[in-house]
Amino acid sequence: MDVCVILSDEMKPKMSKPKTKTARQYKEQPAPTATHATLPGQPETVLLAVTGMSPAVLTETVWALANEPEPVIPSRIIVVTTAMGRTEIIKWLFEPMPRFSGQTPWEALRTALAASGHNLTGKLRFGATPDDIRVITAADAATGRTRELDDLRTPADNEAASDFLLEQVRGVVENPDTRLVASIAGGRKTMGALLYACMTLVGRETDRLTHVLVNDPFDTLREFFFPKQPGGHISKPDTQNSGRMLEYHPANARVDLADVPFVPLRNLFVRELGRKAGTFSRLIETCKADVRRRAAESIRLTIDSARAELDVNGTTIKLSPPEMLVLLFLARRAKQREQPYSSYKDAIDDLNSFRDEQLEATKDFNDWRHGTSLRSVWDERDLTKAVAGIREKLRWQGGDAALLAPCLPEKGRCSLDIVPSMIFIK
Question: If DSSP codes are grouped into helix, strand and coil, which group holds residue 39?
Fold first, then answer.
């Protein structure tokens, strides 16, 4: 015999409060004051969200925004998702449901917000059009033909998603008449991480990055969309007792909105971010190079060629003979403003010539130059190992010493990339 159990408030599991200090709890807020349509001259709020197979994060986020101490009703919603995610949005947000008396969940949300005193005129523009639900696409390398992605499974899929997300974010933030609220609550973790990176790169100080938190079990109930939804209790099978159904009332749900802090770097890279968007990876590399250049400008590097030590802004580090040979070789080239090598392999012949010079420079066999590790002719593996050793010591030391690590040779560049006038060799 099937048994239906309705849990009273006393029987329901106690929910721990969210640990984040930035969470805004809908149940603890007084009734929001009525909001009005966007006035001329005021920026439009755009909610940009990534979603996957749980589109309810959209209704939950909109509800949480509307119930903040200073209510926010987005003018429009843009969703970035996959082809499968679009199917779920249409199925779960835009198809009528019996529990909502024939309304769709999105219509029910608008009705509930209007009943709470919010003026939705010109607000919450959202539908099933390609302009509202933007499906991530990728181009076939062989044919050039684009296709919609069903899921993000491969590195190539993630690269396509990063480029697509950057394009969507820039499309909003480059309009001075908008304010962006980006939500990382839905979709695969990779999508949220990529959206966070995009916001860090091109987001503005006035933009927000958010995550919505819903208490158990409402976070797993398929038919839960927001706390004041109509339709009464929501049923869920009791996993501990086959044949029994547990029921939960949406009014007992708690929807918390947490602001996720991010550092807007756009002011540091005005020149790079002002260019045509390009790809996500290219923008990342360009900004990394700028960070390295800025770090290099603050480095004072002193090399004690007798003691095999380096000093970075007052921090001294002891090097092995191979590490000292490489650093001294690169430092002298940098100080003389010689062109960087394009690869480690290109540097080997000159490095071996420099090694021979150092062996002849002193007859003191206790000197580091006469170490057994320097007696044999070097190859690319020796250079790679020495650079890795220096980098590891710099990072382990931390502080200002770690600033030198990005200036060491890397793929596509074999040089010491710091200001020549800030290199001192004793």
Answer: coil
